């Protein structure tokens, strides 16, 4: 939770800073001591420092979000070879191996055009071995020769493992 507030969400960081800074200013207006003066100034300096820190630090959750959005762009552009590079050699999904899965995705993309793909509401689970699971919602526009559906919702769960500095979808 604190990682999300301090490193991933600048809006929540700003809201938390406002609450703390108002408390410090209230304490300063009541006490007016040198320590209270320093606390007010420290709070004013802390916000830009925390904002810079949250920009520089990329958390595991942000890395996974970037990976998922990258996968979405690959699917939207119908780059099946690039998609295959994201998948581990021992990938499985619904009793399909990696090549069968890529073939099925290619078949679906030949019949349907996917566009306006938006991912949101990410939730992460991490284990001690470097593996992760991410759940997110996706909406997209699906077009075929005889139909056009906008904002088609779906919910996804990906199990990831870190492999050679790159996360791969394993199931």
Summarize the structure.
This protein has 171 residues and is α+β, with helices and mostly antiparallel strands. The chain has six helices and six strands. 53% of the residues lie in helices and 30% in strands.
Describe this structure in words.
There is one protein chain. The chain has 171 residues and is of the alpha+beta class. The strands form two sheets. The chain has a four-stranded antiparallel β-sheet with strand order 3-4-5-6. It has helices at 2-8, 10-31, 34-56, 60-76, 80-86, 98-111, and strands spanning 92-93, 96-97, 113-126, 131-143, 148-163, 166-169. Helix 1 (2-8) crosses helix 2 (10-31) and helix 2 (10-31) packs antiparallel against helix 3 (34-56). The protein has six helices and six strands. The chain has two domains: 2-56; 60-169, Nuclear Transport Factor 2, Chain: A (Roll).
Layout of helices and strands:
Layout: H1 2-8, H2 10-31, H3 34-56, H4 60-76, H5 80-86, E1 92-93, E2 96-97, H6 98-111, E3 113-126, E4 131-143, E5 148-163, E6 166-169
Antiparallel strand pairs: 1-2, 3-4, 4-5, 5-6
Helix pairs in contact: 1-2, 2-3
**How large, in whole angstroms, is the Cα Rg?**
22 Å
Q: Decide which structural class fits the backbone.
A: alpha+beta
Mean pLDDT: 84
Kindly provide the name of the CATH class of the largest domain: Alpha Beta
CATH fold topology of the largest domain = Nuclear Transport Factor 2, Chain: A
Q: How many β-strand runs?
A: 6
Listing every helix as H and every strand as E from the N terminus to the C terminus, the arrangement reads HHHHHEEHEEEE
In DSSP terms, counting alpha (H) and pi (I) runs of 4 or more, how many helices?
6
Low-confidence stretches: none
Largest sheet: 4 strands, antiparallel
> How would you write the strand order of the largest sheet?
3-4-5-6
Strand content: 25-35%
Principal-axes shape call? elongated
Helix content: 40-55%
- For the record, the CATH architecture of the largest domain stands as Roll
Distance between the termini: 27 Å
């Amino acid at each position: 939770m604190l990682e999300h507030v301090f490193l991933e969400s600048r809006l929540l960081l700003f809201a938390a800073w406002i609450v703390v800074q108002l408390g410090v200013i209230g304490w300063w207006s009541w006490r007016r001591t040198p320590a209270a003066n320093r606390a007010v100034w420290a709070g004013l300096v802390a916000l830009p420092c925390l904002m810079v820190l949250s920009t520089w630090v990329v958390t595991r959750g942000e890395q996974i979000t970037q990976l998922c959005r990258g996968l979405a762009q690959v699917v939207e552009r119908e780059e099946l070879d690039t998609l295959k590079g994201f998948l581990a050699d021992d990938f499985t999904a619904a009793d399909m191996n990696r090549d069968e899965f890529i073939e099925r995705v290619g078949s679906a993309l030949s019949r349907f055009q996917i566009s306006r793909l938006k991912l949101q509401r990410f939730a992460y689970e991490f284990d001690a071995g470097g593996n992760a699971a991410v759940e997110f919602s996706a909406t997209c526009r699906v077009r075929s020769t005889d139909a056009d559906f906008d904002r088609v919702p779906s919910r996804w769960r990906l199990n990831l493992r870190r492999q050679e500095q790159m996360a791969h979808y394993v199931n």
